[in-house]
Amino acid sequence: MVTWQDGANTFIDALADKDTLPGGGSAAAFAGAMGAALLLMAIGVTLKRKATPEADKTFLKPYLANLENYKEEFKKLTQDDAAAYLEVVRLKKQATVDEAKLADRKSRRV
Q: Each residue of 11-69: pLDDT tens digit?
C-alpha cells in the first residue's frame, strides 16, 4: 500500500535528483496545492467541532469550494509546468537540428 509519506518522499527525492524535472515551477505549484489543502483541512476540522459557533460555520462553508478549486488548479499547474519545460527542451533541440541542417546546406553551396 502506498502511503502519503511515500508520495511526499518521491516528490522531494525527484526535486533533489540531477534530472531537471520537476523543477522550481512545479515545486511552487505543489506548495500552493499544499497550502490550499491545509486550509481545507483546518476548515474541515473547525466545521466538525461541536464547540464551533454556527455563525463561524456559516462564515467558513462558502470557502470550501473555492479552496478545493485552488487545490486542483495548483495540482494541474504542477503537471503543466513540467509539460511546458519539456516543450521548451523539444523546441531547443529542434532549433539546433534546424541550424545544423541550414549550416550543412550552406556548406554544400560553397
A: 999 999 998 889 999 999 999 999 999 999 999 999 999 999 999 999 999 999 999 99
Secondary structure (DSSP) of the chain: ---HHHHHHHHHHHHHSSSS-S-HHHHHHHHHHHHHHHHHHHHHHHHH-TTS-HHHHHHHHHHHHHHHHHHHHHHHHHHHHHHHHHHHHHHHHHHHHHHHHHHHHHHHH-
Residue 90, all three cell numbers:
523539444
**pLDDT at residue 109 is higher than 70:** no
